[in-house]
Amino acid sequence: MFIGRERELQKLNELYNTHKFQFPVIYGRRRVGKTSLINEFVKGKDTIFFTGIETNAKQNLENLSKSIFIYTDGLTKAPIFSSFQEALEYIFDLAENKRIVLVIDEYPYVAKAYKALASILQVEIDKHKDTSKLFLILCGSSMSFMENQVLGYKSPLYGRRTSQFKILPFDFFESRKYFKKFSDVNMAIIYGIVGGTPQYLFQMNDDLSIEDNIKNSFMNKTSYLFEEPNNLLQQEVRAPAIYNAIISAIATGSSKLSEISNKVGEETSACSTYLKNLISLGIVKKETPMTEKSTKKTIYVIADNLFRFWYRFVPSNISIIQNEMTDLAFKNIEEQLSTYMGAVFEEICKQYLWKLNKKGEAALTFTSLGRWWGNDPKNKCETEIDIMGTADDKSAIFCECKWTNEKVNTAILNTLISRSKLFHYTNIHLYLFAKTGFTKGCIDKAKELGNVALINFADIMK
């Protein structure tokens, strides 16, 4: 089942229909659906599909040769090209008068096994690009390798690619397309526990309750998701134990570099490097308060919902999970689930606001959106704003998001009004987002003010 990626497919087909040499680079972390996207794109097209494996150059050359002869003659047992250059020269010759797609999936495996591959590709591209109809796709999961050794300016391939596609997990609205039976609230929870990575979404079952999905996937020692964070780290990084400790530190409340460093017992310079790698993998993100230029207030948070959920709940319940006490483990999670979903709801609201902004339906057309935290001099305390967006020096939106079963009341609106006055903006619009609605008093005051939008979760889901 292939879902989503309409924009990427459209762009790839636009490039394909030029009938000129094209060289798109497709990259993104594992499980995000790169190969599925490519498979959907090449349907009905003449394609040589070669997947690199983590072995030596000889084995990869044999596999490339087999892929070529399967395409040309339907042969599974065929001669082996004497070199990668000969094989690539042969493919470029095939594509002189015919549109052919060549996919080199998991390119980093091949390039690491045969160091000269990038230079050979450079030579062949420069030689044939003006006459060839080849559609060359390089795809890889090693984010740092693809960004540095393929797209980076020091790479022999620098300047040769004709487009690049960084494939990211789906947002909440795209993730909804995978399911038909979950209620709106349960769909939000599903997104909160596995995020928008297609492979993780496939592990969820909308014929089951949230409880059963959590038990089957996070409390079952044989399930795919139970070992996924560890498996992914082992595939992506050299010292998974250190990365595991860093993610655990963030999940349990350490957000500043110094706090994380102290928690894991590593120098801040080393931690900074590890965090940079986790950011490139899309597991962690760095945040600075909106409007702040100083990096002194920078914090680190877990960006991927599966990692955030797993590290929040699995390690603390691991003993009872190992002893198959799943009811008790779920009870421990259920008690904290509403609190956990607060940050998830904020992210869904941000995605909703960007949708409104794109359609020109937001209260004002903002250019940036994020969280704010800092000092409230009037009340002499630290405070925060869930979402803040700015359009120019005079215009901003301020938002509060409440994932509770109680209706949002006037007191919450008054607090948001007060916090909006911490800034110099004169054109202010307020948004209140609620899981279950608003009290009559809150609705009346919003109408009276005229610059307040009250949005139910049900409105977001329309």
Attribute tags:
462 residues, Arc Repressor Mutant, subunit A, 3 domains, Trna Endonuclease, Chain: A, domain 1, Rossmann fold
CATH topology category name of the largest domain:
Arc Repressor Mutant, subunit A
CATH class of the largest domain: Mainly Alpha
- Please tally the β strands and state the result: 12
**N-to-C terminal Cα separation, in Å?**
24 Å
The chain-level mean pLDDT equals 95
Q: Assign an overall shape.
A: globular
| Major sheet characteristics | 5 strands, parallel
Number of helices: 21
Radius of gyration: 25 Å
Give the arrangement of secondary structure elements:
Elements: H1 6-16, E1 24-27, H2 34-42, E2 47-51, H3 57-73, H4 84-94, E3 100-105, H5 107-113, H6 117-128, E4 134-140, H7 143-150, E5 163-166, H8 172-175, H9 184-194, H10 198-201, H11 210-218, H12 228-236, H13 240-251, H14 257-264, H15 268-280, E6 284-287, E7 299-302, H16 305-313, H17 318-322, H18 326-359, E8 368-376, E9 381-390, E10 395-402, H19 410-420, E11 427-434, H20 440-449, E12 452-456, H21 457-460
Parallel strand pairs: 1-4, 1-5, 2-3, 3-4, 10-11, 11-12
Antiparallel strand pairs: 6-7, 8-9, 9-10
